């Protein structure tokens, strides 16, 4: 079955294309090009239906979404009639939030006969299963990771973030709209008096999927940059939910974790 | 009944002493003096029992705790025999966290015949009941405050923070160990692309007690500095749980909110 990769910004589309058995057709939303990956086809939301028909004509049987897209502005002058008819559904979903929008986008693709696949099925190597991948988390780290996992689960229930930082049982911060980089930069900037003495446990950055999220889009992603930010924040390592977090360039992450003295742990 | 105010750092002890009907005896932990309030009696944790007996001798019937205290270092050379016997209980509680420590401290005072009162009973004016205290929160602000309240409730269940910032339904951050100042400073430092367009709703800082917390200690506190930080973060105002959040100098807060163009809202 021919696959189209609907790519957003960032490095994930390239990593995904490389990890797939067959080269996919690469489509990108106008204005949101992936890093380092050639785009075969550019489309606009205002002309979504012609784009979906083009995929059909090309014999595409399934699509996979990867990369970041912020809400695009819509230019009414560009709308075709068929897409215009879908607009109320799309606009209503966009008003209800990102998750609702993604659910409707998946529905629309499926209504046009395109299956929507997840990273699990097309590139499972990007989602490491349980195991310690670098360094050696200690008992204190295990306890911190467990507390962070409980916090992320509680946050997921109110649809906030996918990450938290815990050191010596104390929560130093959780991920909200501004994302991982902002969370870790904030912790790097903390005055020493506002965090526990690192000599007794440097702390863990933990990342997980939202409970109940559609695993076909928006799985959390970490990479070498995450490890650099974790080291800059003075933490001891990264733990993540095994099988649910995409690792961009795992080999380089393992090498870098060793260099930075961090652990990297896919937690069951 | 004579009351002792056991004061920690910050401005709350002074505000509390002023709001009480009768002047209390002011006791402070060695090294943690309140701002602007004369201390009648200094004590050390190593000599807790002699301190409790001195309160008894002075005819003190109840105590109220106010102000911040970080875990003091203990000097074994200063211990008296009676306090030494209590140490295992105290140390165990300190290892289990701040809430556990406070519970044990309350128990010890009660075992020595001292009732532990809350702000509710000795200075209810510091805890505003439901109502808009400054400005006019709009429908968007009401929705943001409701979402923030749900987030703080979820966080409370995992014993994290008492505050959250929501703008246009999106959570910009939650309060963790580093506290309100760090949260608001982080939001002030956000790049514009990482938050929704303020023209459509500037957002709300929301504060509440932890669900199920002992209301006799560590109720959340806001004051004029909070409003300045909220303005610097570009938010539209402050909402808080009516009857459960201490307002330091409410009159000054109302004046300042007007000057800064913020609303201040005790939400039922």
Task: Summarize this entry quickly.
The structure is a homodimer of 268-residue chains. With 268 residues, chain A is α/β, with parallel strands linked by helices.
Plain-language structure description:
The structure is a homodimer of 268-residue chains. Chain A is α/β, with parallel strands linked by helices. Chain A folds into 2 domains: 2-122, 3-Layer(aba) Sandwich (Rossmann fold), CATH 3.40.50; 127-267, Cytidine Deaminase, domain 2, CATH 3.40.140.80. The first copy, chain A, has 9 helices and 13 strands. In chain A, the strands form 3 sheets. The first copy, chain A, has a 6-stranded mixed β-sheet with strand order 6-13-11-9-7-8. In chain A, strands 3-2-1-4-5 form a 5-stranded parallel β-sheet. In chain A, strand 1 (2-7), helix 1 (12-19) and strand 2 (25-29) form a beta-alpha-beta unit. In chain A, helix 3 packs antiparallel against helix 4. The two termini of chain A are 32 Å apart. In chain A, 44% of the residues are buried. The model of chain A has no long low-confidence stretch (mean pLDDT 91). Chains A and B meet through helix 6, strand 8 and helix 7 of A and helix 6, strand 8 and helix 7 of B.
What is the CATH H-level superfamily of the largest domain in chain A?
LpxI C-terminal catalytic domain
Strand content of chain A: 15-25%
Major sheet summary line of chain A: 6 strands, mixed
Span from first to last CA of chain A?
32 Å
Number of helices of chain A: 9
Stated plainly, the CATH topology of the largest domain in chain A is called: Cytidine Deaminase, domain 2
Shape of chain A: elongated
Q: What class, by secondary structure content of chain A?
A: alpha/beta
Provide mean pLDDT of chain A, rounded.
91
Helicity of chain A, as a percent range = 25-40%
Output the helix-strand order of chain A.
Answer: EHEEHEHHEHEHEEHEEHEEHE
CATH class value of the largest domain in chain A: Alpha Beta
Quickly count the domains of chain A: 2
Give the second-level CATH assignment, the architecture of the largest domain in chain A: 3-Layer(aba) Sandwich
Summarize the largest interface: chains and residue counts.
A-B, 26 and 26 residues
The radius of gyration computed from the alpha-carbon positions of chain A, rounded to a whole number of angstroms, is: 20 Å
Low-confidence stretches of chain A: none
Number of strands of chain A: 13
Strand order of the largest sheet of chain A: 6-13-11-9-7-8
Oligomeric state, counting identical vs distinct chains: homodimer
